[in-house]
Amino acid sequence: WPTCAGSSPAPTFENFVPGRNVEPLAAVRAAVSGIPERVLYLWGETGAGKTHLLRAFAASREGASFVRGEDYAGTESGGVLVLDDAERLGEARQVALFNAFNERAFELIVVSAHAAPRDVALRRDLATRLATGLTYRLLALTDDEKREALAAHARARGFALSEEVASYLLTHARRDMPSLIQALDALDRHSLETGRPITVPLLKAALQPELT
Q1: Residue 139: which of 56, 12, 46 has the closest Cα?
Q2: DSSP 145-199
Q3: What is the longest distance spanned by two Cα atoms in the chain?
Q4: Partner of 191 at 20 to 30 A CA spacing, among 23, 33, 47, 76?
């Protein structure tokens, strides 16, 4: 894909397309003001929106620190820990997080994973602790919901997405939302570079390296 200046809008609650995830969205928004539980656990397949909600929460909650599982140092403490992709915690970091939980090092832990606490690829003692709060499953968007999400993202970038372009993207590009958003961003940049409107012919030209 061509690269040039331009960036995607930051993940917010407002630009999150909930689809069937109205309840978990409401729970994460409510946690910004504070909840009695010590853990808010979101799980679901890749592209369901877990990272989007965690980043939106971290940007809205004072004292929240967003960290990916592979980057968790085990020395963080205080405030709110926002931990994305918990399965990427190494063994030593899992022990560190288990100890942090027992020592009440954090007021709240908001965590995402690909599986429910009972099935997640973590130490059982840690998984049991993470299951003590609120747990929500995020469901991937349907095709119609993906079209809505892509149209909303396009509007945030300042252009209108035609039904033809959206349909072509869903048919020919990788179908998970992160990949679709990345393709749409690249298409917008390519349009700005070439001075051509965003149409199916432009999309075909931009997608060609990807298809081959």
Answers
A1: 46
A2: HHHHHHHHHHHHHT-PPPHHHHHHHHHHS--SHHHHHHHHHHHHHHHHHHT----
A3: 58
A4: 47
Specify whether the CB–CB gap between 81 and 41 falls below 8 A. no
CB-based burial, 2-38: b 16+ in 10 Å, e otherwise: eeeeeeeeebebebbbbbebeebbebbeebbeebeeb
**Residue 210 confidence (pLDDT):** 53
Distance CA 199, CA 195 (A): 12
Q: Residues with Cβ < 8 Å from 42, sequence gap 6 or more?
A: 24, 28, 50, 53, 54, 110, 111, 112, 113, 135, 136, 137, 138
Strand-by-strand arrangement of the 134-137 sheet? 64-68, 80-84, 108-113, 39-43, 134-137
CA proximity to 165, closest of 195, 142, 197: 197
CA distances from 55 to 28, 45, 65, 78 (A): 11, 17, 9, 18
pTM of the model as a whole? 0.80
d(CA 147, CA 171): 12
Q: How many CB atoms lie within 10 A of CB 72?
A: 23
